[in-house]
Records
---
Amino acid sequence: MAQHVAPSRAPRLLTVRPLASASGASASRPSWDIRLLYDGDCPLCLREVDFLRSKNAANKVVFVDIAAPDYNPAENANISFERAMETIHGVTWEGRVLTGVEVFRAVYEAVGLGWVYAITKIPIVLTIANKIYDVWASNRTQLTGREALSVIVERRRLEEAGKASCRTPQAAGAGAQQQCE
């Protein structure tokens, strides 16, 4: 029986070379299966990540905090901070990008707890689970006592723009260097 996956949820192959390392330098099979992009400023997200880390004895999951100042989209299938904040993302070692419940299923499988999300292999269950997750994802910042997602994303954009202006030749004057540090 063929399974139907909604087009917006279908994994996409973004690159032909494996993401063997953060820099992508090696084309051999890495020891990890999936990179989990998570919001390190989200208290509930951190609880789940802490739990998953405790089960990640084989290091099959690489945890990437998108809220960290050094988060680099180029090292994570070019998933921008804004896009990563909208919904959870995972990047497999082959370079496939997963979103929503499929990420949880892949990560739980990688740490040996695949049975937890196994039911989401049934298409109707996956559809319902994704709809519920989408409601959570779009409201999670406010539900966890933080500002609206749009405010957080705009603040990050302005911070990044400020860093970029520090690298421009016009900002290289004596006074500008102090402001950029």
Note: The mean pLDDT is 82.
---
Amino acid sequence: MTQTVTAAYGSIDKAVNAFDELVSEGYPREKLFLDKETSEVKVIVPEEAQPEAEEILNRHGPDEVWARPYEAS
């Protein structure tokens, strides 16, 4: 099952750094979303890749990280 992992950061700088690291680790940009208003990063990943994505997001000191099943709109 595909998951949407979201990390909320206290600053846009932390969010941008997390986003940039996901890109440099090979996550496709079309599966990433950076919300500059809320300083959140979202990444859409297969369930087996969720732990790695969460590890990368956690390296940048998020206030909160959560995952939920991906729902295509």
Note: The radius of gyration is 11 Å.
---
Amino acid sequence: MKKQTLLIMRHAKSDWSANMEDFDRPLNRRGLKEAAKMGKWLRKQKIMPDRIVCSPAMRARQTIEIVCEQLRKHAPAITWDERIYEARLDDLLKVIAEHGKNAECVLLTGHNPGLDHLVNHLSKDSSPHTEVGKLMTTATIAILEFGEKGISDKQGSGKVVKLARPKEI
């Protein structure tokens, strides 16, 4: 088996309307632009996931649907996985163990703080945080590569080869 890649993406910037349940919050104008920008970036980098698994929360759904529009015909079907919403590290590890089998490139889209914990757990090296100490800011994509044994849930099993943030690409 050759190297496998795990793309971990946080949903884009969402609306904070007080009259709405957290699960139902949509993207705001900035978030819509961020999601499109990141989808275009993936396409230009020729990074094409063959499996996508996403939180069913509205802001994550909108993010991944916009990303898939940018990937065009290369986007696979999306698997909506309720375990990703409000997930702890152990929940996310189960999701990647299940969906990482027999895939070259998996894109997982979800929420913080779980995604921060996931990237830190899987990464061999410390990942670059922003000046305010954040790792997975909105619409950020962490690209992790794994060796011959494939995507693993083991601590330090992957290497962050790129941390793509909308403001930095």
Note: The first helix runs from residue 29 to 44.
